């Protein structure tokens, strides 16, 4: 991949991968090795977290489309010559600083709105108490400024580039 053409985002916008992909199978040992390396890299490259999580779902029986998605992450890294500062970092901020983050695939499908409402209700009351005790301050964030989107879905290039700076991955 040393001579690859760089790309501006780690995941193609609108990409749909599937475990039932009937495409050409690839060497699963090589695929797992690549994905493990990419996952290790997320310690300092929060901007590739979503794409890594996506390809890591297919380590058992990878196909050429999964391989190409993993290689795209390498092409993105190749094109990025900026600072690679470590970032700890849901995206929660203290002031303008990211202090913790998380991105994970949900373990179960919610079968009823009642199940979801019980979880929301519990979190709502917990957060309300924290606000009342002045332990946290909640701040409204417009949809287009949702920095956590970089952790959960592929974004258009301009949105992706905009979201890296607040995370501390890139300098202004």
Features:
mainly alpha, two-stranded antiparallel sheet
Could you explain the architecture of this structure?
This protein is mostly helical. It is 42% helix and 5% strand. It has helices spanning 28-41, 49-56, 64-78, 113-132, 149-152, 157-167; strands at 91-94, 97-101. The protein has a two-stranded antiparallel sheet with strand order 1-2. The relative contact order is 0.18. Residues 82-89 and 108-117 have low confidence and may be disordered.
Offer a concise description of the structure.
With 172 residues, the chain is mainly alpha-helical.
Task: Indicate the topology.
Elements: H1 28-41, H2 49-56, H3 64-78, E1 91-94, E2 97-101, H4 113-132, H5 149-152, H6 157-167
Antiparallel strand pairs: 1-2
Strand content: 5-15%
Number of helices: 6
Structural class by sheet pairing and helices: mainly alpha
- The unreliable regions are 82-89, 108-117
Number of strands: 2
Strand order of the largest sheet: 1-2
Distance between the termini: 28 Å
Largest sheet geometry: 2 strands, antiparallel
- What is the alpha-carbon Rg in Å? 18 Å
Broad shape: globular
Helix content: 40-55%
Order of helices and strands: HHHEEHHH
Mean pLDDT: 80
